[in-house]
Specification:
Blueprint: E1 17-18, E2 22-28, E3 36-39, E4 42-43, E5 53-58, E6 65-67, E7 73-76, E8 87-96, E9 103-113, E10 121-122, E11 126-132, E12 140-143, E13 146-147, E14 158-162, E15 171-173, E16 179-182, E17 193-202, E18 205-219, E19 227-230, E20 252-255, E21 257-259, H1 278-281, E22 284-286, E23 292-295
Parallel strand pairs: 2-9, 11-18
Antiparallel strand pairs: 1-4, 3-7, 5-8, 6-7, 8-9, 10-13, 12-16, 14-17, 15-16, 17-18, 19-21, 20-23, 22-23
């Protein structure tokens, strides 16, 4: 009697299958590399080499995760900054040893736990604002803003203040918003620039503070009238000038001088003559810029008052 023994050769006719479709884990930001986060497991109904699985990651563009190709343990490849990535996602692929190989995939989601490790920082180190003079107290000058990358936009933990210096009494800062307002009416002629230091503090972490410089430029308003220095200084509004009739024509009788405490165009002056009698005006010539008053009539004795109301006596 003949006996025959037959062995069945396994065919790689099964694909690997993960124990779950999505694997989730958490990690505290700034944790050192190689922290075990989770373990993925897959199985294959085939036998032998056809059931031997290896793991790899894909769809991990920043390469922040690693997976042990034999054990399926997923770890972080680097310290992770919550402010750069609050969630990590990747795809883990299990591949068997068959030929041709079969594979399966599952999703990995890692939540990064935020640590309050960021310091307050103003959006710019120096702010420059301009406000017109003579505005009432409480006029808005501008806003400053300090941010903490750890804070969500809805969290309002920053409180603003004003460091005391020689200019701080003229201003105040709204604690909750960083709005800078005047505390009094400003005068361009008294002080054209004010320098402030605005502070910010995280009230949950008083040690987290920041400061910035603020320059407030006061804008000039045309709020001063011109006043004569010569020939009518102070409260004197009439001055008599004797002109020798023997002087030749076109001689400078006097040079008018005036000043205006405003700035630029607001303080730029021109001179002109006015009279109730048009005939008087033809006897004189006044340079509108230099203020030189010239006699253009012969043998004339003249008393000059306020040059805006100059007349012949």
């Amino acid at each position: 009697m003949l006996c025959f023994a037959a062995s069945v050769v396994d065919q790689n006719d099964h694909s690997p299958k993960f124990s779950q479709e999505v694997y989730a884990a958490t990690i505290i930001e700034n944790s050192p590399p190689s922290q075990p986060l989770l373990r993925v497991t897959a199985f294959d109904l085939d036998d032998g080499i056809n059931a031997e699985l290896t793991y790899r990651l894909q769809d991990d563009p920043d390469e922040l995760l690693n997976v042990d190709k034999r054990l399926g343990i997923v770890s972080n490849a680097a310290a992770i900054d919550f402010e750069a990535a609050s969630t990590l996602t990747a795809t883990v692929v299990a591949t068997d040893g068959g030929s041709p190989a079969r594979s399966a995939s599952a999703a990995i989601v890692v939540k990064v736990v935020n640590v309050d490790d960021e310091h307050l920082t103003f959006s710019v180190p120096h702010y420059g604002f301009t406000v017109a003079e003579n505005q009432p107290a409480g006029t808005l000058v501008g806003h400053v803003s300090a941010v903490d990358a750890d804070l969500r936009p809805t969290e309002r933990r920053v409180r603003y203040g004003l460091a005391v210096n020689q200019d701080s009494r003229m201003f105040y800062v709204v604690e909750s918003s960083g709005a800078v307002l005047t505390n009094a009416s400003l005068d361009f002629e008294r002080r054209r620039n004010h320098r402030l230091v605005v502070t910010a503090v995280d009230f949950l972490h008083p040690g987290f503070t920041a400061a910035c410089d603020v320059t407030v430029t006061v804008g000039d308003v045309n709020d001063h009238r011109p006043r004569f220095v010569f020939p009518s200084p102070g409260s004197v509004d009439r001055v008599a000038l004797e002109v020798d009739g023997r002087h030749p024509i076109n001689v400078v009788v006097c040079t008018l001088k005036a000043r205006d405490d405003d700035d630029n165009d607001n303080g730029r002056l021109t001179f002109s003559l006015v009279s109730d009698h048009d005939a008087d005006l033809v006897s004189f010539n006044l340079d509108p810029v230099s203020g030189q008053l010239r006699l253009v009539a012969e043998q004339l004795s003249v008393s000059v008052c306020n040059p805006l109301q100059c007349s012949k006596l």
